Amino acid sequence: MTQYEHWTQPEPLWREDTSLSSYEPLKEDTSAEVAVIGGGITGITTAYLLAKTGRKVVLLEADRLINGTSGHTTAKVTAQHGLIYHELIKHFGEEQASLYYQAQTKALHTMKEWVDKYNISCDWAQEDACLFATTLKGSLKLEKEYEAYEKLDIPGGTGHALPFSLDAEKTLHMKDQARFHPVKYLKALAEEFVNLGGEIYEQTKAVDITEKDRLEVKTGSGHTVSCEKLVSCSHFPFYDGKGLYFSRMYAERSYVIAVEPEQEVPEGMYLSIDEPKRSIRTADYDGKKVLIIGGESHKTGQGVDTSFHYRALEEFAAVTFGVRKKLFQWSAQDLTTLDKVPYIGPITRRNDRIFIATGFRKWGMTNGTLAAQLITEYVCGETSLFHDLFKPSRFKSDPSMKQFISQNFDVASHLVEGKVELVEDTPNRLQKGEGMVVQWKGQRAGAFRDDDGQLHVVDTTCTHLGCEVEWNSAEHSWDCPCHGSRFSYDGSVMEGPADQPLLKIAIDNQTELPFQSLDDPDQPQDTP
User: Fold this and answer.
1) CB 209 within 8 A of CB 238
2) Eight-state DSSP code of residue 75
3) Hey, what's the torsion of the CAs at 395, 397, 399, 404, to 10 degrees?
4) Cα separations (Å) of 6 from 3, 441, 450, 487?
5) Of 129, 297, 241, 318, whose CA–CA distance to 497 is shortest?
6) If pLDDT is split at 50, 70 and 90, which confidence band does 419 have?
7) What's the rounded Cα separation, in Å, for the pair 199 and 454?
8) C-alpha distance from residue 379 to each of 138, 201, 227, 382, 495 (Å)
9) Is the Cα dihedral 452, 457, 461, 467 positive or negative?
10) Residue 76 has pLDDT above 80, yes or no
11) Hey, which residues does 343 pair with through a beta bridge?
12) 336-395 pLDDT, tens per residue?
């Protein structure tokens, strides 16, 4: 462990330079035609579109608007979702692969129309998106992806050079994509929703649904929202509805830094396909161009010391562009489905009142907008060419079965490993701002020492299905390696599927756990 340094929660560039309106929590029972759960791009866009149809819509957000994945994105608005089209053709066929591209492109164009219609100042810039390979193996993959582009009539082209100091074996461009400032854009869309008569309640967590003649949404404060239809846009569905979504998706964390580079900033948006992956784009901040660099993905709760990932991105930025100043760092959590296509539609085959949108695989800007469009069609009783491709009840035997077996074998192995792990550390040597898995009275526990030197000790057993959580030093959270649930240092839920906090372990007398300074190795330890 390193000597304690003052730690603050990583914050994205997007929230630093934009002030948001605040909305009151729900303080009494209410009713609506449609309740929308989640205040990110999917929830806000869905609420806006449904309000435009004249329906009474209520939007509930457990925290603050745009403070989840939508506020921690790299904010690329593109249909180029990594190496996807060759794989889609292989597993879904050319017709469905083409529909995927058309759906993403339609979402992009819709967002641009709204930017123009409402004169939204959100730094919208049209740029090409570019995949690049630095290895021969990656180059061959890009060649197959380009062949898919040609089959699907996707405008693009290949090359062999990048506009910065990194050698590439091959590049693949997709024309006329975009980048923007997501918080400025969504702030304006939320205001339009309110202007249409929509209601927003922040700090209002939806915890359960009772399915009666009307749906009743229970909130953490004990109030109820009665509605005819409900849309879950809460990243991981807060209500499973027997859809078993925890077994049909996996969660990944990825990391982002924003830097002021020494070299000239290149135009365009870039994504490497070789490991370790790197995402590169520009942004406008404080009157100058800055670089946003992302990457270092790993399954939630299964990475190395999470601070390492930020250091790796910083080293890449320094070698490739030079870094005059590091400005921000943040991370995000994303969900991937068994076949890599999002789940958008009725929560189960026979339920036409509850809808979900999840599994965007890091491409939430177009997928979130697309989801809002498709779900609005469902609520209004309209049909679409895109519904079958994205419906949550689908199951493709290949690759879904392989992924289902692989994912759930991974869960089982982590469940066993966590239960048999030998833990020798104790809380005594924890510095301020540090946390770790410890042994507490013979049991595995999690301990964190806050800025005041106070210890917080929790049971590390995830309240979802009993896996053992691991400490995330970069975000100061307890992360579950099985299904991606995340808890704050004090055990409160940050991300589902868990909906109950970690059990707190009471410490009646803090003096029984004296703080041992690393500067005084001879100080005696009192191990409980």
Assistant:
1) no
2) -
3) 70
4) 10, 30, 10, 21
5) 241
6) very low
7) 40
8) 43, 22, 12, 8, 27
9) positive
10) yes
11) 358
12) 998 999 999 999 999 999 999 999 999 999 999 999 999 999 999 999 999 999 999 987
Closest-CA residue to 66 (of 117, 15, 128): 15
Closest CA to 492 of 479, 480, 481, 502: 502
Identify the burial level of 119 via C-beta atoms within 10 angstroms of its C-beta, where 0-12 means exposed, 13-18 middle and 19 or more buried: exposed
Please give the structure tokens belonging to residue 398.
């290949």
Q: How far apart are alpha carbons 424 and 437 in whole angstroms?
A: 9
22 and 64 Cβ atoms separated by less than 8 Å: yes
- How many other C-beta atoms lie within 10 A of the C-beta of residue 481? 25
Distance CA 208, CA 216 (A): 8
82 vs 204: CA distance, rounded Å: 35
Residue 505 has pLDDT above 90, yes or no: no
- Helices in 118-204 by DSSP H: which ranges? 136-152, 182-195
How far apart CA 434 and CA 2 sit, in angstroms, is 9
Give me 465's structure tokens: 């299905």
The helix (run of H) or strand (run of E) holding residue 19 is none
How far is C-alpha 507 from the chain's CA centre? 34
pTM, rounded to two decimals: 0.85
Rounded Cα–Cα distance for residues 194 and 56 (Å): 11
Residue 499: pLDDT band (50, 70, 90) is confident
Q: What is the side-by-side strand order in the sheet with 486-488?
A: 470-472, 477-479, 486-488, 493-495
Instruction: Pull the structure tokens for residue 227.
Output: 């509605």
For 413-471, the DSSP string reads: HHHHHHHH------GGGPPTTEEEEEEETTEEEEEEE-TTS-EEEEE-B-TTT-PBPEE
Contact residues for 183 (Cβ-Cβ < 8 A; gap 6+): 14, 15, 18, 20, 66, 71
The number of beta carbons lying within 10 Å of the beta carbon of residue 308 is: 14
188 SS3 class: helix
